[in-house]
Every structure is written in C-alpha cells, then in structure tokens.
Amino acid sequence: MMSTLPKIPRGAGIGAYAFLLPALLVIGLFTLAPIAYALFVSVQKMDLVSGRHSFVGLRNLAYLVEDDKFWAACHNTMVYVAVVVPLQTAIAMALACALNGKIRFKRSFVTLLFLPTLTSSAAMTMIFMWLFNNNGLVVQFLQQHFGHSVNFLGDPRWALGIIMLMNVFSTIPGYMVVFLAGLQEIPAALYEAALLDGAGPFSRHWEISVPQLTPVTCYVLTMGLIGCFQVFDQAFILSGGEGGPENATLTFTLLIYHFAFKNYNTMGLACALAVVLTAIIFCATLILNRFVQPNGANR
C-alpha cells in the first residue's frame, strides 16, 4: 500500500530563504568576499596608494621564505604557542578542580579570579609594562632584595616571556570557568565509587576528571591554539609596533601588520603571510583533534 504524502507547494521555501537572505548577505559581504579578495591579493604585487597590481604568483611566498623576519616571527610564534597553550590549559584545569570542591566563599574566589578577563588587553599590557619596566615594581623588588636588576622589556631573552606571562594571566580565568562548568556535569557517583575503592584525590582527578573533561579540554586547547597563533595586541603595544628588541616579540600577525600598513607596496606579502598563517592554524587544529578527540576517545 503506497502512502500518500502531502505535496509541498513549489514556492513554500521562498519565505524561509527570504529570512536567511540578510544573514547570508552579511556573511558573504564581510567574510567570504574578504577571504576571496585576500587570496587574490596574495598572488599580486599591489600598491595601495596607486591601486596598481601585477600578478606575481608564488613569488610572494618565495620572498617570505628568504626573509629573516619571517623566520624570526615563525620561531617566536611557535615558542609562544608551545608554552602558553599547555600552561594556560593545565593551570585553568587545576584551579577549576580546586574550586569544584566544597570550599567557603567559592563564588567570591571565582569572581576575583575572573576579573582579569574583564580587563581589556591594552590595559592589561600597560599594567605589565608598568610592573616590568626599569622603574617597575618587579625590577625594584629584585634590586632591593637581590641586588640585581633585569631589563625585562629591553632584553630579547625576557621580552617574549613577559608577553607569555601576560597572556597566561589574562586567559586562565575564562578557561577556568569553562572547566568548572564541565566538572559540574561529571556524575558524583563516579567519585563516590572511586572513594570506596580507596582512590586518593590525585587518582580521582587523573582517572575520572581528566578523561571526563576531554571534550572540554579539546575545546580549550583548540581555542587557545587559535588565539595564540593570532597574538598581536600585546606584542604591538609592548614593542611599540616594531617587534623588538631584536625581533624578539615579532609574531606572524605583527609581521602581517608591517607588510600591510608600514609599507604601501607590500600588501601582497601581507595577504600571502595571512594565507600561510591560516594554513598553519588549520593544520595544527587538525593535528590537535587527531590526538585529542572531542568525544573522549584519545589516540
């Protein structure tokens, strides 16, 4: 017996597409069109002032590979990602586990720890510059108690580390709240069963919390990875936009800024580097999700 389904009128979907049209126009105009234009410019030699451009193909990429600043930015960005992403994730998880227990003034602690996230990146950078400049509190403390002064902002060995410290300090609270929400979704029966089996606090955390938090950890690692590859404002403010001292704070995004706005005929190099950075972020995210599965099945 054949079932007869009501026929949908031919023009019934027009209303739905009409509602989608404004969103599609915004996405196309402000997302897809700029991406397409950036891909076009990445293979051009373009002068922003005159608007003249000529096709150069892969010569922009060849120039980047031969540029010492590109490799300095690559080194700094990779070190930054390798240090900041694991550190901020581990500390955020540890703080979330500590606050997940029954402690007094829990909400007050969460509020205080979350305050750095509410501070703008520019203001946070200025605070750290005030703390670590030659007349800052940290340098004065070292001078008074240890008789040794460190030029944190002017020494290439320390400048990038200050930006790392700043980023870890400002991003931990947000990720801590994410982990805290994930911990509250773990069934209490799992911890009770482990406690009856004689498992200690560390064993319960390692055997229960960490595996159960795998989807949350994957999200935090992915967002941290993308954010760290795109670090710009802290390096820009701390170095005055130059990436110094001695290119120690030069990152991919800061080098893109140099190509795009400091020189008027290198917009093609800026777009080519942006394409390279996008490819690196895409590949790094795929590799991360290959080993840390969002569904909890780690490999």
TrEMBL record:
Domain of life where this protein originates: Bacteria
Location in or out of the cell: Cell membrane
The keyword Transport appears for this protein: yes
Record field: transmembrane: 12-40, 78-99, 111-132, 158-181, 267-289
GO biological process: transmembrane transport
Keyword Transmembrane helix included in the entry's annotation: yes
InterPro entries on file: ABC_transporter_permease (IPR051393), MetI-like (IPR000515), MetI-like_sf (IPR035906)
GO cellular component: plasma membrane
Keywords: Cell membrane, Membrane, Transmembrane, Transmembrane helix, Transport
Main subcellular location of this protein, as a coarse class: membrane
Membrane protein topology class: Multi-pass membrane protein
Stretches assigned to the ABC transmembrane type-1 domain: 74-288
PANTHER family in UniProt: ABC TRANSPORTER PERMEASE PROTEIN, INNER MEMBRANE ABC TRANSPORTER PERMEASE PROTEIN YCJO
Family statement drawn from the similarity comment of this UniProt entry: Belongs to the binding-protein-dependent transport system permease family.
Protein name: ABC transporter permease subunit
Organism from which the protein derives: Duganella vulcania
